[in-house]
Amino acid sequence: MPPIGKPKTGTIVLIHGLWMTPRSWERWSDRYTASGHRVLAPAWPGLEREVEELQRDPSSIAGAGVAIDSAPVKGVLPVPLSTLRSAWPVLGNPANKNKTVGLTARQFHHAFTNTLSHEESQAVYDRYHVPGSARVLFQGAFANFNPRATTRVDFRNNSRAPLLFIAGGADRIVPPKVNKANVRLYRKSSAITDYHEFPDRSHYTVGLDGWEDVADFALAWAVHNSQVHA
Q: DSSP string spanning 11-34?
């Protein structure tokens, strides 16, 4: 992988995941902006407010219909037990399907920040966690039984942009085996599909110590492969 150096500047879009807001990208956004890039970190519909306000009143989230390709995508089997256990606080109650559901601090520590101490995890939880749409998880969990699943992908799309999967070796929500299964599916296309694993990193890899290494690797890869793809 070429060093990050001083790449040609461009626009970088950072998209947050479930139970998070654009605030989760705050350090990445600052780092990429400082290197001369224009950075966009849009919120999911209904999540445009600050974390503290959403924690107090999540009603705007419940009114938003969010459809996003979750991990794993349709076609990945079997779903690891660690993934199911991390999502069980939501999936364990079918009545949650159309609700907005958050994680407790203990559940968040198990799923997101399992490499941190309880005290460190609590600080992350207080700053970043918001309730999330349960529908997203139900769509992903039952995708393989639904021929019209929202998580279906045209894996043979040879004209798509290059794609990099970054995995954390200690991730319980999307463990390396899920990322590797996704890679195998996407490699049915002739387009570039790469995989890189950072050992001992949890699902909270964007904020753990050493996040700069992940951010710089991702940027260097994107700059290099966007030039190859052009």
A: EEE----TT--GGGGHHHHHHHHH
Cα–Cα dist 118/197, whole Å: 25
Secondary structure percentages of the chain, helix, strand, coil, to 5: 40, 10, 50
How far is Cα 181 from Cα 198, in angstroms, rounded to an integer? 17
Report residue 112 as tokens: 């997101």
Residue 88's H or E segment, with its range, is helix 81-91
Instruction: Supply 45's token pair.
Output: 């519909």
Beta strands in the chain (DSSP E): 11-13, 38-40, 100-101, 132-133, 163-168, 193-198
Token pair recorded at residue 90: 């939501």
Q: For 36, left (φ over 0), alpha (ψ -120 to 50), or beta?
A: left
Span 10-58, pLDDT tens digits: 888 888 888 888 999 999 999 999 999 988 888 887 777 776 776 676 6
Mention the CATH class of domain 11-229: alpha beta
Produce one character per residue of 184-213: b if its CB has 16 or more CB atoms within 10 Å, e if not: ebbeebebbbebeebeebbbbbbbbeebee
Q: Is the peptide bond before 7 cis (omega within 30 degrees of 0)?
A: no
Half-sphere exposure of 207 (CA within 13 A, CB side): 22
